[in-house]
Amino acid sequence: MSVHFEERSGVVPCKTPWGSWYQTMEEVFIEVNVPHGTSGKEVKCHLGSRDIELLVKGKDIFKGKLFDTTVSDEATWTLEDKCLIRIILMKTNREAGNCWSSLLEGEYCANAWVQDQMQRKLTLERFQRENPGFDFSGAEITGNFAGGGPDFSSLQK
């Protein structure tokens, strides 16, 4: 596939007071708006497998226990254009049914509509991986998509 599935089909962001977060089957992306001119030295970011903390210019942006576990060795953060912090977390459970309903336990929750759209997106991503010759980027999904959609593994080929 020449273009990544998410680049063609867009993302489903969950808006927050500091920016937004969104997810794929494998990763969680966090985008934090910071004051223009912020330098990397003014950013303190702790990325653990189960917890996260971000301070900018000594001010807590967020801190807490993540919704699910991540691979801390593969987590990264960058400061872009001195006004946007982008954090990428690698999920340990990379199944389509593992749709995070919030970034932190009990905080930055996706509303029901956003959660529904996120789950649809992960299910379509799963279908794309299972059927690499087909383009699902513009597809709509209805019916049983909660938990990653229907399981066709028991069907004979």
UniProtKB/TrEMBL annotation:
InterPro entries: CS_dom, HSP20-like_chaperone, NudC_fam, p23_NUDCD2. One of its GO terms (biological process) is protein folding. Gene3D superfamilies: 2.60.40.790, Single helix bin. Pfam families: CS. One of its GO terms (molecular function) is unfolded protein binding. SUPFAM superfamilies: HSP20-like chaperones (SSF49764). One of its GO terms (cellular component) is cytoplasm. CDD domains: p23_NUDCD2_like. Residues 14-104 form the CS domain. This is NudC domain-containing protein 2-like protein. It comes from Perca flavescens.
